[in-house]
Amino acid sequence: MCKQIIPPNRVIVTNNLLGSFLESPPAPARKGKRNIERFPFAITSERYQEMFRKKEVLKKQQEEEKENRKRKKQEKRNEKQGKSNNSQTATQCSACLKVIRSGELQSDDYKRYYHQKCVPQSHERNTPSDDDLYIYHSCYRLSDSDQDCEDIDDQEVDELYEQYNQAKKHFTNDYTTLYKTRPINDAFNNYIFFAYVQIIIVSVNSAKLFLNMF
């Protein structure tokens, strides 16, 4: 067995007593304000399992509350939309197809709504005079039978059809006359010509559309 040979002129210093002179450095001060949650080191510990269960319960509760809020909003939206659709259907003018928003009157048949200005001339004799702006109008029941209502509708359709044919005839004649007599190189007359043709076309289409409503 070999032994360590120490020269007589060398000194060995051990560090066994240095620990009493050394100190641990101070922990750095925490500057951030965020509250960071500290997780346990072992995921199998009871503390970690309890924390995990609480988070799952809280997450599930928040999702249920969110779904309930969405469902209530959708129910309110559907309810408002249903009321709006019912209101528009019940108060729609049969002539101009616009909504009558207030002051409507009702008869026994509940067939058609009309604005005061949209009531056909053949129906004016049945229009009440106690409303200034709006009127609910339909065929009024007579004591004898409903044949008079059908006669009034047939008469109105005949009048509209005759007006449509007259407008179409005037449009054809005016178009032919203006096309033959207008100066070719006059820009202003060309503009007036096309504007007049557009007005006639709109009038004929309006009469045709109004005729198809009956």
Overall structural class, as computed from helix and strand content, comes to mainly alpha
Uncertain segments are 105-110, 131-150
| Strand order, sheet with most strands | 1-2
Largest sheet: 2 strands, antiparallel
Number of strands: 2
Beta percentage is under 5%
| Tally of helical runs | 3
Distance between the termini: 128 Å
Helical fraction equals 40-55%
- Give the total of domains: 3
User: Any idea what the radius of gyration is?
Assistant: 46 Å
Mean pLDDT value: 65
Q: What is the H-and-E element order?
A: HEEHH
From the spread of the alpha carbons, the general shape counts as elongated
Transmembrane segments: 191-211
Region (Disordered): 59-87
Keywords: Membrane, Transmembrane, Transmembrane helix
Biased composition (Basic and acidic residues): 59-68
Question: Nutshell version of this structure?
Answer:
Keywords: Membrane, Transmembrane, Transmembrane helix. The protein is mainly α. 50% of the residues lie in helices and 3% in strands.
